[in-house]
């Protein structure tokens, strides 16, 4: 009797579901971000912070992100990046050109951590680079500025004369002169990325030199607020800045990082992440121009948006020459009918005809 009962119980147990066999839930991927300036309502850091939040939304429950803001380039950056790696972050984004060398140094000591050097150019097996073709947006903003200026003089407040900034100044000038051949662009170098009082002072100085529309490559909204105060026009950069300059803003060049960051985090999660170089622009959705202000006629808006579509389709290239393009010292830099290669754009060290300023000038 007991033998039959034991057999029956054994058979019954054979058909019971194996509840105890459920696999443990995987820990979320820890991702770190390092920001070169404080998080504000708009600007370079704001767009990367929006990208971080986009990753959390798209991969909810699968990732855990953290960030450190206002980290100076150099020794401070290396310390923060190293701390993030030691804290178990397996993917670290370092969005500033001056973070490149610290990133490379830390990456050598943490081969199991993936690093994304944003705007850098050096790679390693565990270091990828990504950048955006900001100059495409600059060209489009130049078209808007060229149509809107009354004095034919634009201003440009710039951080450092590195290729990325020179690309923007030149593309902006070429965009302006494509619709307004008389346009001139005056440049002020600041030798800093984020210094709101200095940015404001530079803008005010330019407004005193017949400038009625201004662009900038710095990290705050100070140039926009200066334009709003003086009743001038301005091109927002990084973010839509109508909140601080509702009448001054004519157009915004915005950076969209959420898609790229999410794609790279997903690649780490599914073990398909590879080092490489990405340089995306309007076509890839990393750069967008829009957010027009109330002063901009619909005809100008339509023209800019049509050019944006042409850039996405490859029909318009900012550095393709219909006629010889010269620098502001008279040398031909793009012969008629030619288009600069990516390598030439990435190593740009000149200012185009129409720009008042010098590459070596600081302060």
Describe what you observe in this structure.
- The protein is α/β, with parallel strands linked by helices.
- The chain folds into 2 domains: 29-133 and 257-280, Rossmann fold (3-Layer(aba) Sandwich); 134-254 and 287-356, Response regulator (Rossmann fold).
- The chain has 11 helices and 15 strands.
- The chain has a 7-stranded mixed beta sheet, sandwiched between helices. It has a 6-stranded parallel beta sheet with strand order 2-1-3-4-5-11, with helices on both faces. It has a two-stranded antiparallel sheet with strand order 13-14.
- Helix 3 runs parallel beside helix 4, helix 5 runs antiparallel to helix 10 (298-312) and helix 7 (196-207) runs parallel beside helix 8.
- The longest helix is centred in the middle third of the chain and has 17 residues, at 163-179.
- The chain is globular and about 65 Å long.
């Amino acid at each position: 009797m007991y033998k039959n009962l034991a057999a029956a119980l054994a058979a019954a147990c054979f058909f019971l579901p194996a509840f105890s066999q459920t696999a443990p839930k995987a820990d979320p991927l820890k991702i770190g971000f390092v920001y070169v300036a404080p998080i504000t309502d708009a600007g370079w850091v704001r767009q990367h912070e929006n990208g971080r939040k986009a990753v959390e939304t798209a991969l909810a429950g699968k990732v855990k992100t953290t960030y450190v803001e206002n980290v100076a380039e150099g020794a401070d950056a290396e310390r923060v990046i190293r701390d993030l790696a030691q804290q178990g972050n397996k993917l670290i984004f370092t969005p500033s050109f001056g973070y490149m060398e610290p990133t490379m140094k830390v990456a050598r000591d943490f081969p199991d951590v993936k690093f994304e050097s944003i705007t850098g150019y050096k790679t390693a097996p565990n270091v990828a680079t990504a950048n955006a073709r900001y100059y495409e947006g600059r060209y489009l903003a130049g078209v808007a500025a060229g149509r809107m200026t009354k004095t034919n003089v634009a201003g440009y407040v710039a951080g450092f004369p590195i290729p990325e900034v020179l690309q923007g100044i030149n593309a902006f000038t070429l965009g302006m002169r494509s619709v307004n051949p008389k346009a001139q662009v005056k440049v002020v170098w600041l030798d800093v990325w984020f210094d709101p009082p200095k940015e404001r002072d530079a803008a005010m100085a330019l407004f005193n030199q017949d400038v009625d529309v201004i662009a900038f490559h710095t990290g705050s909204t100070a140039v926009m607020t200066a334009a709003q105060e003086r009743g001038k026009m301005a091109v927002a950069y990084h973010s839509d800045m109508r909140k601080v300059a509702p009448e001054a803003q004519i157009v915004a060049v915005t950076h969209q990082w959420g898609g790229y960051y999410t794609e790279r985090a997903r690649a780490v999660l599914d073990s398909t992440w590879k080092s490489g170089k990405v340089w995306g622009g309007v076509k890839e959705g990393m750069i967008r121009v829009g957010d027009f202000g109330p002063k901009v006629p619909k005809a100008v808006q339509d023209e800019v948006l049509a050019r944006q579509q042409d850039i996405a389709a490859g029909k318009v290239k900012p550095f393709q020459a219909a006629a010889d393009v010269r620098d502001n010292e008279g040398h031909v830099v793009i012969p008629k009918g030619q288009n600069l290669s990516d390598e030439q754009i990435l190593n740009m060290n000149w200012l185009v005809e129409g720009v008042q300023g010098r590459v070596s000038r600081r302060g």
